[in-house]
C-alpha cells in the first residue's frame, strides 16, 4: 500500500536544499518456529514520509536493488520518471551489500552508522577492561564530541534554510569548523594507531573497522540534516521483533509477508501521527462503498498519507468515533 517517496517531494523552505532521496535501513532474521528450517529476513526502509518492511529469504543485494531501483545488470540507479538522474543517500550499518551498491552506483552516497562504530570500541573495552578500558572510553568520548558537533551543525544548517542572514551564515561556518575539529581529533588518533605496535586484537579489529568504513563515516559532513546513525531504523524494527517473539513468529512464508505489509501500514501511519484505528476504519469504510473491493487509482491515493488532503489527515489523527 505504501512506497518510499523522495525527500524532494516534501513541501516548505527546505525543499530547495534537498535534491536527493534519503533512506535509513536495517534488517533482522526471522525464524518460523515449528515450520522447519526456514529463515527469512525482515528489512526496513525509512524514507521521509513512509516506512516499508520487506520480508525476504535472503540478505542479498537483490532486495536493496528492487526497493531503491538499482539496475540488476549495471548496478546504476534508475532515472526519475522525467528522465533525470537520481541521487540516493543511504544511512546504514557496515553490511557489505550497501558498500558494494555505493561503489557501483553513480549518485548513491553511503552514510555509515557512527553508533555502530562506537559499539566496536565499547566491545573492545569490554573484552579486556584492565588494558583497553581507558583506551575505549577515550574513543567513545571523541565520538560523543562528534555527535555534539553534528547537532550544532544540523541546527546551524536549518537556520539559513528558513531565515537566511549574514549572521546565520557565519554561525553555519563556525558549526562546520566545529565539526571539522571533532572529526580531525578522531582522524589524528586513527592515523597514529596505524603505525602503533603492540595493539591488542580487540582494539585492532575496532580500528580496522573504522579505517575500512572511514569514507562513509566522514561523508556525514556533507549531509548535516541527516543523523549520524541508523538508529531510527533499528527503533522501527524493534516493534516487529517483539511481536515476533510474543506471537511465536510466522508459520508460513505467506503469513510472514503479510506481517511485513501490516508492519508497513502501521509504521507509516505512526510516522504521520495518525490514529491507526481511525485511519483503518475510514479505509475499510471506503472499501465497503465499492462493493468490498480493494481501492485503486485516485480512490487509493486518497489514503496515501503523503498525498492525502489536510482535512483527511486531521480527521485520521482523531480517536475512533
Automatic annotation (TrEMBL):
Residue ranges of domain Transposase IS66 central in the record: 39-257
Cited InterPro entries: Transposase-related, Transposase_IS66_central
Listed name of the protein: Transposase IS66 central domain-containing protein
Amino acid at each position: 500500500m505504501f512506497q518510499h517517496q523522495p525527500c524532494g517531494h516534501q513541501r516548505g523552505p527546505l525543499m530547495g536544499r534537498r535534491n536527493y532521496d534519503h533512506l535509513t535501513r536495517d534488517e533482522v532474521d526471522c525464524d518460523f518456529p515449528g515450520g522447519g528450517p526456514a529463515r527469512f529476513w525482515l528489512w526496513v526502509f525509512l524514507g521521509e514520509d513512509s516506512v516499508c518492511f520487506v520480508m525476504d529469504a535472503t540478505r542479498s543485494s537483490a532486495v536493496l536493488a528492487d526497493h531503491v531501483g538499482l539496475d540488476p545488470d549495471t548496478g546504476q540507479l534508475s532515472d526519475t520518471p522525467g528522465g533525470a538522474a537520481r541521487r540516493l543517500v543511504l544511512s546504514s550499518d557496515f553490511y557489505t551489500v550497501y558498500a558494494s551498491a555505493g561503489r557501483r552506483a553513480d549518485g548513491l552516497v553511503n552514510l555509515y552508522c557512527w553508533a555502530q562504530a562506537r559499539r566496536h570500541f565499547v566491545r573492545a573495552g569490554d573484552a579486556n577492561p584492565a588494558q583497553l578500558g581507558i583506551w575505549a572510553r577515550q574513543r567513545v568520548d571523541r565520538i560523543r564530541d562528534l555527535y555534539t558537533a553534528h547537532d550544532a551543525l544540523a541546527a546551524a544548517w536549518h537556520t539559513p534554510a528558513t531565515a537566511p542572514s549574514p549572521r546565520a551564515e557565519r554561525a553555519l561556518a563556525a558549526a562546520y569548523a566545529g565539526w571539522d575539529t571533532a572529526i580531525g581529533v578522531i582522524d589524528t588518533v586513527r592515523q597514529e594507531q596505524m603505525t602503533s605496535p603492540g595493539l591488542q586484537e580487540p582494539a585492532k579489529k575496532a580500528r580496522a573497522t573504522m579505517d575500512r568504513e572511514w569514507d562513509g563515516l566522514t561523508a556525514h559532513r556533507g549531509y548535516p540534516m541527516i543523523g549520524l546513525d541508523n538508529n531510527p531504523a533499528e527503533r522501527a524494527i524493534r516493534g516487529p521483533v517483539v511481536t515476533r517473539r510474543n506471537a511465536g513468529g510466522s508459520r508460513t512464508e505467506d503469513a510472514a509477508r503479510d506481517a511485513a505489509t501490516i508492519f508497513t501500514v502501521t509504521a507509516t501511519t505512526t510516522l504521520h501521527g495518525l490514529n491507526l484505528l481511525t485511519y483503518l476504519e475510514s479505509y475499510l469504510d471506503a472499501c465497503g462503498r465499492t462493493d468490498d473491493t480493494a481501492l485503486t487509482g485516485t480512490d487509493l491515493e486518497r489514503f496515501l498519507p503523503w498525498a492525502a488532503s489536510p482535512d483527511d489527515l486531521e480527521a485520521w489523527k482523531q480517536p475512533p468515533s
